[in-house]
Amino acid sequence: GAVVSQHPSRVICKSGTSVKIECRSLDFQATTMFWYRQFPKQSLMLMATSNEGSKATYEQGVEKDKFLINHASLTLSTLTVTSAHPEDSSFYICSARDPGGSDTGELFFGEGSRLTVL
Amino acid sequence: GQNIDQPTEMTATEGAIVQINCTYQTSGFNGLFWYQQHAGEAPTFLSYNVLDGLEEKGRFSSFLSRSKGYSYLLLKELQMKDSASYLCAVMDSNYQLIWGAGTKLIIKP
């Protein structure tokens, strides 16, 4: 099946710094990628839809200036958490659909990135 | 509003069978997904149902009734490694995925 890779898997940073998380589709081109956030024991929360070559679409309540998304190529989307604070500590997951794959609409997920802000 | 309901937690015995239910109310329907998620890891795809009926895939089966807004995931011959959270998700009329909160399945020896 299609592979989506996310990096880094774990990151610890100081409050006030910025952190970049990369999401790559390894064997297919993804015009659209999705960024999720998941708190412990809670479901996935869609943060934004990343569109190649255009601005991301953010869900209600998600600060676009706080969570910068760049989808510069068909295989790479990045999420930058700017001026991170402890409340930003969470598990961030990206996903993508393989447009050339099965038509089930199956999402392929990256491994996830656990962010801890001290 | 849109809503996905599934039990918060279930416990079962190794070797047994367990059924995890999911009910949904969404604006439109373009398929229902089940994902497995181990603690600290990203979800992995288990099944997809868009028509009524039962889809069997090895030890896992998924059932859908669109008229009832209901699905279940059936796990047979439970193994300890099946201990995980199971997420039900529905794709609505805008092809957006609406996620349930997940069911934590605990397998006991």
Question: Explain this structure to me?
Answer:
The complex is a heterodimer of chains A (118) and B (109). Chain A is an all-beta fold. Chain A has strands at 4-7, 10-13, 19-25, 32-38, 45-51, 57-58, 67-73, 76-81, 90-96, 108-109, 113-117. In chain A, 34% of the residues are buried. In chain A, strands 2, 4, 5, 6, 9, 10 and 11 form a seven-stranded mixed sheet that branches. Chain A has a four-stranded antiparallel sheet with strand order 1-3-8-7, with no helix packed on it. The model of chain A has no long low-confidence stretch (mean pLDDT 89). Chain A is built from no helices and eleven strands. Chain B is mostly beta strands. Chain B is 0% helix and 57% strand. In chain B, the strands form two sheets. In chain B, strands 2, 4, 5, 9, 10 and 11 form a six-stranded mixed sheet that branches. In chain B, strands 1-3-8-7-6 form a five-stranded antiparallel sheet, with no helix packed on it. Chain B is globular, with a radius of gyration of 13 Å. The model of chain B has no long low-confidence stretch (mean pLDDT 93). The interface between A and B is medium-sized, with 21 and 21 residues.
Give the topology, please:
The complex is a heterodimer of chains A (118) and B (109).
Chain A: E1 4-7, E2 10-13, E3 19-25, E4 32-38, E5 45-51, E6 57-58, E7 67-73, E8 76-81, E9 90-96, E10 108-109, E11 113-117
Parallel strand pairs in A: 2-11
Antiparallel strand pairs in A: 1-3, 3-8, 4-5, 4-9, 5-6, 7-8, 9-10, 9-11
Chain B: E1 3-5, E2 9-13, E3 18-25, E4 32-37, E5 44-49, E6 53-57, E7 60-65, E8 70-75, E9 84-91, E10 97-99, E11 103-108
Parallel strand pairs in B: 2-11
Antiparallel strand pairs in B: 1-3, 3-8, 4-5, 4-9, 6-7, 7-8, 9-10, 9-11
Features:
heterodimer, A: 118 residues, mainly beta, 7-stranded mixed β-sheet, 4-stranded antiparallel β-sheet, B: 109 residues, 6-stranded mixed β-sheet, 5-stranded antiparallel β-sheet, 0% helix, 57% strand
